[in-house]
Amino acid sequence: MGAVEGILTGFEVALSLEGIMFVLLGVFVGTFIGMLPGLGPISAIAIMIPITYGMNPTLALVMMAGVYYGAVFGGSTSSILLNAPGISGTVATSFDGYPLAQKGQAGKALAIAAISSFVGGTISVVLLMIFAPVLASVAVSFGPPAYFALMLLGLTAIASLSEGSTIKALIAAIVGFMIATIGIDPQTGTGRFTFGSANLLDGIDFLVIALGLFAIAEVCFLVMNRRKKSVTNGKDIGSLKLSKQDAKEISGPAGRQSFLGFILGILPGAGATIASFISYITEKRIAKKPEEFGKGALKGIAAPEASNNAATSGSFVPLLSLGIPGSGTTAVMLGAFLVLGVQPGPMLMGDQPEIFWGIIASMYIGNIFLLILNLPLIPYISRILTVPRPLLISLVIMFSLIGVYAISFSTFDLYLLLAFGVLGFIMRIFAFPAPPFILAFILGGMMEQSFRQAMTSSGGNISVFFTNNISLVLIILSVISFAFPIIRNLRKKKAH
Amino acid sequence: MKKLLGVSFLVLMLIFLAACGDDTSTEEDTESNEDTTSEGDVDSEENGDWEPEQSIEIVAPAGAGGGWDTTARMTAQTLTEEGLIDQSIGVVNEPGGGGAVGWASIANKEGSPYDLFVSSSPILLVPLNGQSEYGHEDFTPIANIIAEYAGFAVREDAEWDTLPELFESMKEDPSEITVVGTSSPGSMDHIQFVRFAKEAGVDITQIKYVSAPDAGGVTQLLNGSADVFSTGVGEVVEQVRSGDVRLLAVTSEERLEGDVLSEIPTAKEQGIDETFVNWRGFFGPPEMDQAAIDYYEAKFKELSDSDAFAEIRDNYNWEEMFMGSEEYEEFLDQEKESFQEILDELDLSEE
Prior knowledge:
CATH architecture of the largest domain in chain B: 3-Layer(aba) Sandwich
Largest interface: A-B, 69 and 65 residues
Shape of chain A: globular
Oligomer: heterodimer
CATH topology of the largest domain in chain B: D-Maltodextrin-Binding Protein, domain 2
């Protein structure tokens, strides 16, 4: 079966009445669960798996895919409104989304997030459709040295993620690195910094740290400053409408970062989180006014949102064409496939084209539904900000606790959440930025493992990072990325 | 007023959804806790026949979606749907420490006939690595249900055609060959490979082993970062089917069934007299009553023989492997001893 024929089969599935219904159901449930702070695609997919028992596998999987990208689509809501990211992919969205909402423009922030998500989702589906069959080789082209270099590139951004003191940003990043080493070290099987506690053997979950440092710390901050009148006065969420200038401003980042996000999404292990951070950083680097970032820049919302949605489609490449789940979420997704008796892998496209192409084709429709569902809801959802502050704070705490418990079912993690909340609060008082901490935590673990995998296979020969083409290019990019701000500053000085 | 209504509706919806998301775990959790404390021991009257009189809980000491979780859920589902057990059966995830967190909590439910858990080789290896204070000796083995076998995969263009050829190369220059697995050294993927290498006379302390979590093993094999992938057969069967990867050997006693699988030779028929099975079965808490053991053993036997479960085995590429309580215990003791020897030699043992 040729690709064109395959695509047609796919649309036949996706445009049938049942197809449309299940896509709609999937994206609705997904986007709704994704909006809740602390709950992301993993919870959404896990909740939906039992419902699919005995269903037609194609329709069931079309629905489950909808749940997945729907949850990512909706995931920005709680980041923007409450500074409580439900999934790692939307942490970067909160950097500018939350400040913009605090300025009384929550409506605009949500609208930009929704539109950028739509752009990212749609561009990436087109890429997925055209290149899915050939992209499988890209997914496996990254060996440990290349992953190490990619993480290095991400890390060069630490300095640019901070406002003010670079030293403080570096200290925060080092602590993030240290936290990433907690747990069993995969290369030796030894527990590190676990203090003999079985609860720490698996390391600390990302969500515990993100919700602690962002949501709980924010709550502490609000409680401390309760006398200060809130910046967001409830009635004003600002207009949803984007001016022509706004649209022009976000079209660049949303378009560019859709491509970047998709490519990073294909790589197993990198995924939406790293994509959203790298996109955020690139936009900041090339922006004419980088100082606006972190204070509610529209580009700062558009870039990570386009990117994380594009990366979500990208993550279907290794899953569908190789049967490799590149993240925790796609691993649960793989479980959903297996429950239905479908084995994703190199044979899927040939053996069951209606499933392979049906899922891809349904994403077009799903993304349109998501936009239609999300935009009109914005005025209602942003009213969550009009909830009296004591109630809102309690809600944020409650959802953070639920989100963490739903992942590990462990009360130990709840204490950890509180501990990171206190840490985040202290960091905030002393002006240590949280983003470098979280970036170092995310990249650090993978960076260390890739480095050591590369060292083991090469017998300790460091040249392995320079003989591999991908890795070499990425290392050169890292050097440029690191040197760029310095050179720019020097030039500015000369100009004066 | 209208606004307030809107907001309260939204909040209600949020709470409702959150409650939905969590119900599988929390409700069952509290239920069983109450039960075990209030009337847990009442029903073990005399010896004779025992029947459960309240809901049963199966713990999967890992997160959702993995092998233990799937086994627990499919078993619970089949036991209920086939009408083998009338009481409701809930599955609870207690992830952490490669199983250690779940085991520690079951160890406290001494004697309860309503708390089962699913486990496999890690319950032998994790304590040997010093990461759990509880091992299989602390629990009551009830029955083994299924098995998966390991395989050693190489790229389609690799220079080795048989397992002995690979081991010959390793004997000549161990530094040339990287073995990749999903789990860390001292755990299953590593040990299963080492066991065969040892039998073939390779110096096992010289083997270069890399751990690539998150399904990175296939990737590393395909892009040439690693030469051999030690894994469960099911993890690479699709790649074998597509021709990207070859399996040099499976670790089972006899060849497996299935279109591609039946073509893969066992290590045994290639002259390496060793086997490895990743068994998976059910255990109870310490000091479980004999009547309850007998009851569950019989039910698991019926389950294993049912057509419904046969279909599930096919879906997940599981093999049938039933062992009753006594046989199971002996088997586990032997396996643990053999692992202990290997770990001692590798200097990884902590016990």
